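Feature request, filed as a ticket because there's no other form

It would be nice if the structure record came with a short human-readable summary line next to the tokens. Right now we just get the raw output. Example of a typical job, pasted below so the devs can see what we mean:
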Amino acid sequence: MKRDKAQRKEENGPSKKKEEKDTAALADADDLFFVFDDNNFDVAFQDCTWIIDSSASCHLTPHREFSSYTRGDFGYVNMGKGDKSSKIIGMSTICLKTNTGCRFTLKDVRHVPEFQFNLISAGGLDEDGYVSCLGEGKWNLIKGSLIVARGKKENKLYMIQEKMCRGLIT
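Raw output as currently delivered:
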């Protein structure tokens, strides 16, 4: 039925009445998509999901889109019960723009292409002077009196959706 309607519309030409429609697009984490209309053209990157992990000894990511990056042999990281280890091929500093409007920096993030998730080490945040508050399905990252980021619990994991900052890191 839909095909017939679309085919008839093609045969009859465009409608005289202009319709405005909202359109949504879905993209994977690695996709770059363009959002535009007749008057504007913008480039948008999808948010990055980061998992807050209290047992991770360092921040990890499979991606290389960093503000700074050092390629090298940085050893191996053990996953799970230590049955499997993966090579760390680089380290970086990543600046994230949070859902509270703040920016914060993750230092010494390990680049492990075989890993499937972005992990933030709760212990690493603690060493950098942040306080992680977990409870009632919510996560708050606090520095001093400022709530730097907020996350929520999904499938027993605390997660945040953040955007990578482009440009200078302080």
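Something like this underneath would help us a lot:
Residues 2-12 form the longest helix (11 residues).
The longest strand covers residues 103-111.
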